[in-house]
Amino acid sequence: MIIDPMKVFVTVVEQQHFSRAAELLNLSQPGVSQHIRNLEHEFGVQLLYRSPKHVQITQAGELLYSRAKQILSLYEEAKQEINELQNVVTGTLNVGASYTIGEYILPRVLADFAKQYAFVDIQVTIANTLQIQDGVRSNKLDIGLVEGEVSPSVELQVDAFMEDEMVIVARSDHALCKERLVTPDMLQDQVWIVREPGSGTRAYWERLIQQNALRVKRSYMFSSSQGVKEAVVEGLGIAMLSRFIVQKDLLHHMGYNEIAMLPLSSRYTRQLSIVQSTKAIPSKAMDKFRDRIKSHRDS
């Protein structure tokens, strides 16, 4: 069937590597190479330039890649429609999530979804907000779940699904933890633990700093929220994080918490959003997943 070599070709192009494509598809590397050679023989053109480190797509390959994505989408749509005749939801969903959502919200949503729609194959990518948006734009991801401000565009459809409270945390013995109320001016000249550029959490922290004209004594950058939290526990500095990340740590454990939430004078919130390509072909599985994500805010 032509679908199989098309799927192999698209995966090689997106991974820019034969070995990584073979691993994702559970095929041997020679098997992947044979699929590509068969396609090149069928079309009578070279589709990819090979090198030991990566592959580069030719002009003919670009054209085939675009059409192959459409063919695969139409194939999945046809499968969905046929299965809907039997009232069964199937298919593959490539879901992307920023770190806070992917590590602290999505697992519970997926567990509930999988119980009801066991025949839907879901692949999850966790990265920062900008990377997830890029994945949706390039059609590598069917749906993205991101934190922070995302503006709708001709490429992206954005739909908020949950409010997320942002809190500032410190090690329990930090001087600010002894205050009854912490105002923005009391955050001057602090050492901060922050996420990397491109993270929704980092963007929100930068806005806090700018809006309150805060001086930063020093900052340490980590590429994961778990790393930020552990640095706070070790007393390296204070951090702004989603309440989802620290809520378990704030529960008393044998009468003592390693980490504490500062009693802020203001409440800080942001929206968590669903992002999809405006060119995405809808499917029953995608619609059901969106419904489950939106219903999660009420659960």
From TrEMBL:
Domain HTH lysR-type: 1-58
Superkingdom assignment: Bacteria
Coiled coil: 68-95
Gene Ontology molecular function terms on file: DNA-binding transcription factor activity; transcription cis-regulatory region binding
Keyword list, A-Z: Coiled coil, DNA-binding, Transcription, Transcription regulation
Record family assignment: Belongs to the LysR transcriptional regulatory family.
The name this protein goes by in its record: LysR family transcriptional regulator
Taxonomic source organism: Paenibacillus albiflavus
